[in-house]
UniProtKB/TrEMBL annotation, chain A:
<dbReference type="InterPro" id="IPR005107">
    <property type="entry name" value="CO_DH_flav_C"/>
</dbReference>
<feature type="domain" description="FAD-binding PCMH-type">
    <location>
        <begin position="193"/>
        <end position="367"/>
    </location>
</feature>
<dbReference type="InterPro" id="IPR014307">
    <property type="entry name" value="Xanthine_DH_ssu"/>
</dbReference>
<dbReference type="GO" id="GO:0005506">
    <property type="term" value="F:iron ion binding"/>
</dbReference>
<keyword id="KW-0560">Oxidoreductase</keyword>
<dbReference type="InterPro" id="IPR016166">
    <property type="entry name" value="FAD-bd_PCMH"/>
</dbReference>
<dbReference type="InterPro" id="IPR012175">
    <property type="entry name" value="Xanth_DH_ssu_bac"/>
</dbReference>
<dbReference type="InterPro" id="IPR006058">
    <property type="entry name" value="2Fe2S_fd_BS"/>
</dbReference>
<protein>
    <submittedName>
        <fullName>Xanthine dehydrogenase small subunit</fullName>
        <ecNumber>1.17.1.4</ecNumber>
    </submittedName>
</protein>
TrEMBL record, chain B:
<dbReference type="GO" id="GO:0051537">
    <property type="term" value="F:2 iron, 2 sulfur cluster binding"/>
</dbReference>
<keyword id="KW-0408">Iron</keyword>
<dbReference type="InterPro" id="IPR014309">
    <property type="entry name" value="Xanthine_DH_Mopterin-bd_su"/>
</dbReference>
<keyword id="KW-0500">Molybdenum</keyword>
<dbReference type="Pfam" id="PF01315">
    <property type="entry name" value="Ald_Xan_dh_C"/>
</dbReference>
<dbReference type="InterPro" id="IPR016208">
    <property type="entry name" value="Ald_Oxase/xanthine_DH-like"/>
</dbReference>
<protein>
    <submittedName>
        <fullName>Xanthine dehydrogenase large subunit</fullName>
        <ecNumber>1.17.1.4</ecNumber>
    </submittedName>
</protein>
<feature type="domain" description="Aldehyde oxidase/xanthine dehydrogenase a/b hammerhead">
    <location>
        <begin position="38"/>
        <end position="145"/>
    </location>
</feature>
<dbReference type="InterPro" id="IPR008274">
    <property type="entry name" value="AldOxase/xan_DH_MoCoBD1"/>
</dbReference>
Amino acid sequence: MSEPIRFFYRGEVHNVADGAPTRTLLQHLREDLHCTGTKEGCAEGDCGACTVVVAELQPDGEVAMKSVNSCIQFVPTLDGKAVFTIEDLKQADGNMHPVQEALVECHGSQCGFCTPGFAMSLWSLYLKQEGQTTPPCRKTVDETLSGNLCRCTGYRPIIDAARRMGELPPVSFDREALKASLKTIQRTEMYSYTHDGQTFYAPRTLAELATLRAEKPTATIVAGSTDVGLWVTKQMRNLGDMIYVRQVQELYRMEEEDGMLYIGAAVNLNDAYEAACKHYKEELHEMWQRFASQPIRNTGTLGGSVANGSPIGDSAPWMIALGAEIVIRSDKGQRSMLLEKFYLDYMKKDWQPGEFVEAVRIPLPRKDIHFRSYKLAKRYDQDISAVCAAFAFTLKDGVVSDAHIAYGGMAATSRRAPLAEAAVNGKRWDEATLKLAMAELAKDYTPLSDMRATAGYRMKTAQNLLRRYWLESNPDSAQPLQSINAYHYAEGVAAA
Amino acid sequence: MNSKSEAFLTQPAVPGVPMAWAEVGQSHPHESAVLHVLGEATYTDDIPEVAGTLHAALGISAKAHANILSMNFDAVKAMPGVVAVYTHKDIPGTNDCGPIIHDDPILSEGLVEYVGQPIFIVVANSHDNARRAVKKAVIEYQELPAILTPQAARDAKSFVVPPMHLARGDAQAAFERSKHRLKGELHVGGQEQFYLEGQISYAIPKEGKGMLIYCSTQHPTEMQHVVAHALHRHSHDIVVECRRMGGGFGGKESQSALWAACAAISAAHLRRPVKLRADRDDDMMVTGKRHCFYYEYEMGYGDDGRIVAAKVEMVSRAGFSADLSAPVATRAVCHFDNAYYLGDVDIRAMAGKTNTQSNTAFRGFGGPQGAIAIEYIVDEIARNLGMDSLDVRKINFYGRNDEEGRNVTQYNQKVVDNVIHDLVAQLESESDYRKRREDINAFNAKSKVLKRGLALTPVKFGIAFNVTHFNQAGALVHIYTDGSVLVNHGGTEMGQGINTKVCQVVAHELGIDLAMVRATATDTSKVANTSATAASTGADLNGKAAQDAANTIRKRLAEFAAKRHDGDPDTVRFEANFVHVGEHTIPFAELVQKAYMARIQLWSDGFYATPGLHWDPKTMSGNPFSYYAYGASVSEVVVDTLTGEWKLLKADALYDAGNSLNPAIDVGQVEGAFIQGMGWLTTEELWWNPAGKLMTHAPSTYKIPGVSDCPENFSVRLFKNRNVMDSIHRSKAVGEPPLLLPFSVFLAIRDACSSVGDHRFNPPLRAPATSEAILNAISAVQDAAEAAN
């Protein structure tokens, strides 16, 4: 019998001693605790009706409180954390929280089913904005609510509520008390939870993880479970034993070294992109905003995304274009390789049993390299790309050398376009060169048609994105080109 | 607060002001708003489960069209927690859940007609165990050829109901007379309802043959009928209750029946409570959606853009069964005019039988599909003539009165309440339409990659069920001795605020605060034989019925008060929680208490049947609608001509809610419908693979609008108007008509596409206008421009 999972819930330590390790937090809340304020809308982390806030101690000792999709979060991953649901928002005196009051005032609910999820996302923003007097800007509101779907209101009243909540009499949250509480349930040794022959392991050190991985090469590695969660809720797969990497403190390391940005595999996508965007603001900010949704980025990791290696992953193309490396570890040691070498074929990667992703290393900007990344999808928020493109050309006196052209969604893996690269290397970066390269792209890739786009659209836009890059990078270009979204926020929102 | 919103939304009610008792017309929050935000509003899955509750899941077809050769459930039964497996053989009564035509089996009897068709039910001790067990069934199929598109259905003469034809005058002769003619085609995709709360039913066996079903449904009475037939019981044995839905949008009008029936069949066999909650992917695979339409059209028009002849053939993707496809097609035919007098008309409509989900009601119910075609066509007429499309729209508007003429629809109903001229004029001026048109032309002349587009489109939408007998409703009003009031009516709450509005009507009638009136769950054992809450008629019908019930009690109370205080019953006033009889003022609750002591009946039923309606389905003519709701919107977009990406930059909408019962709720309905309609026409794409399997069956692949799709510049206003019909407080319906407002988004995108060819060529833009569709339309214009040069 393993030790119960323990996390803070309703201000007390809550123990879970029963249930499969793949039981989701949402199932636990609704079915075991009969706490039904949190709703299931999709069970795949895409609609946000199940949004809760999870608090955890950070490596720096502070508490992070983040919106999370409870429908794909396994209960054992909450060990040592605190869970807040819609029921926690009501004040001790029975009054509504300003978030809730603002939603009522602004007519922010119609059918009301998505409302608890919106309220929790807004609460995560409310906590962030504590002490600020100016209402959040539209972009911040959009980011906060990017993981919440509403089919009734059209969002306008909810956006109003996000701006209104800070104007109501404030309600403060005692972080220090939470921090103290969380400290009481931290573990010093590897935690494991077994149910019906299936074990969930949460090693605490890299060495433990490496040893465990060597012993259990077929166990499922779990980080944010933003993809693995769906293997359970949608594909109903049996994951066998699981190794959870987000208690390994070393995997949160993030620092600059040797001209590279090292990002540990347990760092969540928001933190990873924030660090990368410090160096590549222009080039990556939109990719960051458009990568899944806020709650997915709060739990999902860049390491997990890279390890998963989907052919349409939004991060791989830009990392490949920049020449990023993947750091792989096993109990035998560490090795690094270019990320592009890691992907061999559809969902096939260059690693051995017992190996796992330790980190990615992203080259820091160089003045002579012009870098851009683009994403095309049906929807701005939280959509999987039809085509992702990234270009990093070394440009000197208008001449290209060492062109890196990488696409996602165009082949079985995210990969470079060798023929198009050859067509531009050593050439003047003019329209004639561009046209040559565009033509070569048709030989580099044979994309597929599916529900996201046809092969024809993928090829045409792959070529057109290269043109867009040319318009933005060629020495004779008249003006920098705005993206549609930059235009939207600059023109539309500013004019409001 | 968004300064662009109606100012009255923020105005608090002023205490002590006499009008405070006038509950109608106030912007009260949704009656459940506080429960919603607290997470305390109870949806079907939140009802505390009765001990012994089991959970069901459906086994569905993997083939689009096939005979089932064999089924083996051994592995299913061996899975943990499995209690039972049921097939069509286990249905005690009729195996049908078709709302009109009985061609819709609950469970397949050996033939499967789409990927997703339910074949069997697994009942287990948990939702998860039921779902896992379903996957273990081994089914052998013999595949048959499948029809997947409306055009293929038309070519194969495969229809779920006979084709419809409406003709007025002689379209052919009119074509020959007309100065200009155009021909074209249009594809408009379907749309998933995507209610956030999926389909769910929870059946609890009661004593004898009784069965109580909690069901997320817009049509409790029909659920009652389907379950009674399936169980071979009487309607009086079955009680269906719905407190609220987490969204419906038409998807829970007829198609909640399958889930209610399967839960009830299982519960009846096992004599245990059974809950059937659809997983999102199952829901989307199994249930029908908005019909996609394909149109071929031909128009005749003059130099000024005035239409003299219109001919259209529209074919919808009905799916494998009739469901509501016939009335949807009828409404499409009746809305092909939108706001325009079309001259001589020839409209054919077909509901193509395809091997896909059986398409069903979705907000607008064919109306949007009828009207989008004419708006697309008017857009082409304008471009062909080099005119601004707004001018072509205006010249084709219905006449305002008999003197102007041109005020009779193609189905022979006279338009007697036309406000479209004034409404559009107001919007045109307030939105600065002409000036923005110039600005956009200037911008486009300079900007090579990004292009902006603008469009203003009108809406005229007929209110009432086309089928006359559905236009009836009942209500019960109880006054308890403490003066509190309970209302029950036949409408269902799906977020649209019907309960809020009905409570306002009752509070208004009795002169008491809204807080004193509460609405109960919709329940077939209270008001019987209800119509679906659909066709935007919920508040119109049930509001009138509740008003009737409240008025009956009010009259009794007035007579009683007049008698006690020697007054005239006709001058008794009910205001602000007091009753005034001559000089006397009595608190409402006190009068109620005294009336009870005097043995006055303090509860009443109420009933309403919309007057003046008739419809002849054979000739497709009559007076199907009680009145028309009007509206218009202006949208401005920017399009990236390299990728087809786009953004809505600004939208202004003006909507005619008549004398609005609740402006905040009405504005909310308009905004929500606008964004939902925009989703239909842009990002929401249903995509079936070549084997007929829907591949966009979850929010990861099916993209309804997200928060950043709502433009910052979004202004919705209500047009000042009073319904000329004696509707409830002269208000107008608001549920469906605003879904047509975002036609302006679609046509603004088309306008931006056409700018790459100096507006000389019609971009062949299909809906949904995904980035891909937009880029294709741009390419076609570029090609045409190149060919012409």
